[in-house]
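Objective 1.3, modelling of assemblies. Example input:
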Amino acid sequence: MTVDDIDRQLLAQLQQDATQSYAVLGQAVGLSAAATHERVRKLKASGVIRRTTIEVDPVALGRGVAAFVLLDASTWMGDEPTRRALTEIPAVEEAHIIAGPASVLVKVRTATTEDLQATLRALHQVDGVTSTQTVVVLESFFERQPTVM
Amino acid sequence: MTVDDIDRQLLAQLQQDATQSYAVLGQAVGLSAAATHERVRKLKASGVIRRTTIEVDPVALGRGVAAFVLLDASTWMGDEPTRRALTEIPAVEEAHIIAGPASVLVKVRTATTEDLQATLRALHQVDGVTSTQTVVVLESFFERQPTVM
DNA sequence: CCCCCAGCTGTATGTCATTCTGTTGACGAG
DNA sequence: CTCGTCAACAGAATGACATACAGCTGGGGG
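Predicted structure (tokens):
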């Protein structure tokens, strides 16, 4: 699908607030409510908009400690079992196969450093993992969504 | 604010799909539409729900290459000017001050590896940055929102 | 024992999403 | 040049839903 400039404006608006009406949304980009609705419908149908969701405050939910963990592996970890094992650890928010100093990079969020320790233990027990290296986040400047413009 | 089990169920549901009606949402947790509405209103008012937003497909928007970049610094980078400088680089999606092998960890997304190179150049020009170390993402297992349950 | 209040249900109303119909403008074929 | 086609849009209609309101209930404190 081709995403033109108006579409990007709509995406930017919806990233800010997905609850605004199509009338308001249309005014912001100079279109009628119906035309806006049609464009948003197509963006959803084509998968550019994956879903509309809520952004939660991690701290309020007991996930105030963030860290990145590098996993070294003795076997190839790019397969489904590894993915599933990592998915099942609730603290793991992202998992990536990387090129560089390790095999896998995961981002974790826990309530306390004790929970972080427990998560590291869980990561060690994932098949293939031989060692971990943890980078603790002291302060987050910002975490935002992909820039659309 | 105290977040009880029903609240967490609501949050989980809304993370999946923030467009469903309060009636449907209420059925999922065993409440009336009005009571559900009231709970969600409070979750928003208290900041547990920061906003409702859309999740976009990075690839469709020309951000198919992801990487993590470690920044080494000669000066303290925990202040506002650094934050602003990093915010202004569109490819930078996250920026964290870390404890460990470097001062700052940023996550970037670009269309191509050439754009990644351009972003690295931009990062080098941020005040205080002395060197960078880049970890390129080969494949993402998953990137999800904070687990609420 | 009674009062109070948070949290709930059911209902009413105004707003908005969604659909439909018709218009306009760009484009290609004849 | 003209006609036919199609995509994109505006405006109006209707049906669903958010939101507000009036009462009900059960538990905790005075």
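Residues 31-35, 38-39 of chain B lie near DNA strand C (CB under 10 Å from a C1').
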